[in-house]
Design brief:
8 strands; single chain
Amino acid sequence: MTDRDTLARWRAGTERRISGDGVVFMSRRYDAAIEAVWDAWTDPERLARWLGSVSGELRPGGTAVLTMTPEIEVPCHIVECQAPRLLAVVWCHPGEPESSVELRLSAVGGATIVELEHRRLPDDLAVGYGYGWEDFLDRLGALLTDGDPDSVSWAQSQEALAPLWAALAAAR
């Protein structure tokens, strides 16, 4: 299991925001080249190790399905893909209205800043998406450091992150 000190270090520089118009935003720095981070988001084999398996037309204008668990399949429409800097999709998590996710990457020296913005979320889902995405960013961190993404405990992440995101929602 990824230890708490490692998770705390990864999370320390994370910028988090929830706005009243259904937007969850976070930014995190990874000590990895932008190409490696982009590859972790766009190579189906690597993506399956930390987020979920993806299938379909993996190109701008294409339709894909992200299978996060056997019970959770998220249809996605790829709106924009500009390697290695921008990926934008419209997705429809089962039982929820359509929303959009934009991923922006920027190189800073040998590191990469990842900005993730999830828009058009109902207010009652924003907190869960905040700590859910941040848990996945922890899993991405494990992958990028040659660790095991499955070593990140969802229960521990939820315990640590849910209060942070709830406080952000209450403060808006």
